[in-house]
Amino acid sequence: MTTLLQTRSLTKHFGGHAAVSDVDLSVKQGEIHCLIGPNGAGKSTLFKLIVGTHEATSGHIAFQGADVTRKRPFQRVQQGMSIKMQAPSVFKELPVRQNIHIALQHHVAGRAELTREEDRLLELLDLAADAAKPAGELAHGQQQWLEIGMALALKPVLLLMDEPTAGLSPEETFKTGELIQKLNAEGMTVLVVEHDMAFIRQIAQRVTVLHFGKVFAEGSIGEVIADPRVAEIYLGKTNEH
Ligand code: ADP
Ligand code: MG
Question: Nearest ligand, CA of residue 40?
Fold first, then answer.
């Protein structure tokens, strides 16, 4: 399997505190890779290092074989990363279709192709019936899906998401999992930061567990769930210090 994203000894210090420490993370082409760990483990910091909103203190990040460690976020996006942000950033006053239209317009050539692609995404996101509604009137889960759709408009090689199910109902969470699996079946590589274990069980193929900024465990979802050390840090037993 081709490695799409590779971090080497990636480290981020805040003052004297190492939020991410010596992380070697490898995301293979075509997989759904989940990054999990207790609160404060460094997941969001690692995510921000990968997308470029934080600068690494030391270490390296390679994406599609190119060193992107010192690249700006927009350059990483140009190279094929697409990010679904944690806070919703849809244009609430504009219709759902218009939101997708705006995201697509610089990536699709020609009017007919643009409409075709809008229709395809609306269908994929299960938002076709709400296409004319202002995005602000959608349910919270639907707004999250719309955002995923806008990230997809860039035709990314790697889709990155930090807690895509935050604030969603169990039903909406499950449907988000189905959407991610559908995208993956079409060939999309996905890196997801999550702490909802039911959701991770639903979608994860590979799992990396972070603890105190370091890689604590790694493997298939089955292996990680069966690891008693992982259960322990989730119960907080080794978390008290
Ligand atoms: P997680 O996403 O796993 O909950 P974070 O990456 O948000 O963890 O945080 C990891 C550690 O780094 C925590 O101790 C947190 O307080 C610290 N941290 C995160 N962001 C900053 C920041 N911008 N400045 C200082 N400390 C930070
Ligand atoms: Mg976080």
Answer: 1
CB 20 within 8 A of CB 58: no
Q: Tell whether the model's pLDDT for residue 190 goes beyond 70.
A: yes
- In 3D space, the residue among 7, 1, 50, 17 whose CA is nearest the CA of residue 193 turns out to be 50
CATH number attached to the domain at 1-80+160-241: 3.40.50.300
* pLDDT range class, residue 49, cuts 50, 70, 90: very high
Beta strands in the chain (DSSP E): 3-14, 17-23, 26-28, 32-36, 58-63, 66-67, 81-84, 158-162, 189-193, 206-211, 214-220
| Percent above pLDDT 90 for the chain | 83
Average pLDDT, the chain: 92
Please write down the long-range contacts of 224-229, taking CB distance under 8 Å and 24 or more positions apart. Answer: 224/36, 225/201
Q: What is the DSSP string of 141-206?
A: HHHHHHHHHHHHTT--SEEEEE-TTTT--HHHHHHHHHHHHHHHHTT-EEEEE---HHHHHHH-SE
Q: Which atom of ligand 1 is nearest to the CA of 39?
A: 4
Closest residue by Cα to atom 25, ligand 1, is 14
Nearest protein Cα to ligand 1, atom 14: 40
Distance CA 77, CA 200 (A): 25
Ligand 1 atom nearest 213 alpha carbon: 10
Return the ligand 1 atom nearest residue 41 CA: 3
What the block records as the tokens of 221 is 């979802």
Q: Where in the chain is the domain with CATH 3.40.50.300?
A: 1-80+160-241
Per-residue confidence (pLDDT) for residue 236, from 0 to 100: 58
